[in-house]
Amino acid sequence: MRDLRVLELAGSLAGAYCSRLFAATGADVVLVEPPDGAPTRSRAPWITTPTGWRVSATHEYLDAGKRSVVLDDTALDDAFRWADVVVTSCDGDPAAALARHARIEAADPGTVHVVLSGFGLTGPYASWRNSPLVDWSSGGYAYITGEPDREPLQGGGPWAAYQHGCWAAVGAAAAAMHAARTGEGQLVDVGAMESIAASHHWTLTMYTHTGGVKRRWGRRFGESFHPMGVFQAGDGKWFSVGAASREQWEHFCITCDAVHLMADDALYAAAERFERADEVDAAAAPWMASRSAEAAVAELQANRVPSSIAHDYREVLDSEQVAARGSLAARPDLGATVRGPDRPFHIGATEPVAAPSALGADTDAFVAALAEPDDRTLPEIDLGATRMVEIGIAWAGPLAVRTLGDIGVDVVKIEHPLSRGLGAGTGTVADSSWRWGELAPPAIRAEIFPLTEPGERRWNRMGTWNKMNRSKRSLCIDAKPVEGKAVLDALIADADVFMHNMTPRGARSLGVAPERLAELNPRIASVAMTGYGETGPMSTHSSWGPMLEAYAGFSNATGYIGEEPLRVGIAFPDAVGGVHGAFALLATLWEREVRDEAVHVDMSQLETLMSYAGEAFLAASATGEAPARHGNRSADDAPQGMYRCDGADAWVAVTVSDDRAWAALLQLLRDPALADLDAADLPARIAAHDRIDDAIGRWTATRTPIVAAKELQSRGVAAAPAFTNRDLVLDEHLAARRFIVSWDHPDVGVQCYPGWPIHFSKTPVTIRPTPTLGADNRDILAELGCTDEQIDALEAQGVITDVPPPI
Questions:
Q1: Which strand (E) or helix (H) includes residue 682?
Q2: Which superfamily does 637-725 belong to?
Q3: 692: buried, middle or exposed (CB in 10 Å: 19+, 13-18, 0-12)?
Q4: Sorting pLDDT into bands at 50, 70 and 90, what band is 498?
Q5: Which SS3 state, helix, strand or coil, does residue 757 take?
Q6: Which residues 6+ apart lie within 8 Å of 149 measured at CB?
Q7: pTM of the model
Q8: Considering only Cβ atoms within 10 Å of each terminal Cβ, which end of the chain, N or C, has fewer?
């Protein structure tokens, strides 16, 4: 976001990623470091440079594009006045964070102050400490990742922390736009627990609508879809395949020489295939065993079945798609072969993000510039007066746009008459034997109907749809006929922002390719959120989130120590792409105002995902080796793990991040088996990790997860239960933070959903109920100047409707 000034006070990984996003979009980011350097400078993985220096790959990635300064108190107050946005981190001391905010506000009431913490600045857990593992656990990701009969797992990197940072960047950008227009700064309070809880697809909705508790399923995509995950080919390598739709299922069966499965009508329900996954896998196993992973992917993609190789990080570096799009930037200062992700998306032609500054290298120049007059003119953008047109399918695109709808953007969602499936007919009656807490019958499970009742207007009762498409207006139109195309063109001509996540071929077919958008609207800000990007040899490949997770190396990085690759328990790339998409939309709108012309962003969801493993790619390219799977352990903190508690499948995540926390843990455990470790430093704790794990496990086994977490946190040890979806919906902290919301819907009634994870001190967030199909047809067309007679004609021709075609 060009011309924006961001001041980051070094702290968490999440805060560092938040600021990096601003640096990647053109903001001037200044990193204020303590005299001994930012915490990122002391985190693994490590790289030895050509000159023999041992440097942190985490720092080299996260602090790229930032200027480094070391400031005294007087200069810091001046820096607060210089900044438009101040990014700080809080680890269990909300009082200190609020005191700092008072100081920032006193220096300049127009400054936006974004505070990232594990649990937010208010609520019962506000004083709790966090860690990357605790983030995975508190937000409900860990509980659904791993094997069913084993401990929950974190993902293969601090990706949950980065997701928290991305949400914070969205809040910071929205608040900065408000401040640039009104002069009013504010506090933006963003907790990791809410950020991750808001980054589920149907997990929480599954509980609020049916009482179902989502479980761990290893490499399988739990409860609702199969095949949708990682499989092993005959050459021993892994690949990912996803057959979600009816057509994809048929093509999977044909490709895998399992045509006999198509004769079973029940298997056309994706959840039925999950229930019978062993049968499906056995039928496809001979075909998979007879081919290499590369050959299997080629055949599946040729038959329009989403599939991808499951790379490790080293292999991703050699990807033709990554090379064709210039996704990686060389870092010759770190080594001749060293490369890492540059930006998660590009706004126009840009140079690679610069390497980080040496500690304090920019102090003198920065302090001298503080006395200079501020002659900038920032864009004045009123989000409440901004109109967006969305053609979004699945999860990532709708999440990105819903996020902007929640903060006031007028979103017009273009829906095809079949976008919510077929209309009423057979198969709409609920199973009378179903009871609260049970999985819905497979034929109707994926949609998550309230109380498993599809009802007569089932297309308006889907929990998955209603959760993802709130705060929008619905225009149900067939945009292929001439009359429908004219309406779509008029909408785009009248809009400020446009987003789609179709394939490039689909966008061209519908007439919404970048060049066509600019013809219709010379000032349109547009973002295309495709799987692999609009260019490159894989731009035509179809994908779902699990395919991108495998291709980017994330499945290979996730798993138990020394064992095979697994997957995150949700379609994690969709969550990553969706929140990056929201930030990209705001940044593109800003750039449109700066340039006063159409601006288009070609956003590859593969590249947004890769941006969460920048340090791993730097290290892999430096060493030539992909990092080993590390389960729940950490190279930076020990002990760390997931420990069994009292109760069925009950677990607590614990991280000892410093010597003080270690002393506190020893005092709490009082275990004679650890008597010789009284003064153990990090290397000694890592060496004794198994023995320490046993002692912690003996202690946690006598306590429930929440009791264990509260005892540990009271001593300053980072911990959190491995929260289930049920736990999150009913949790006291999220209730105090008002995260779970409800609204009344004409075809559903009052129902609960996960809410908004960002807390603004001055600008309200207004969540509007999800529209029924085509609910806003007449209003939107009238705004375009259509008469009642013209609208009636479009209805009569079937161009617009509020009822899908019948079954």
A1: helix 682-687
A2: formyl-coa transferase, domain 3 (3.30.1540.10)
A3: buried
A4: very high
A5: coil
A6: none
A7: 0.97
A8: C
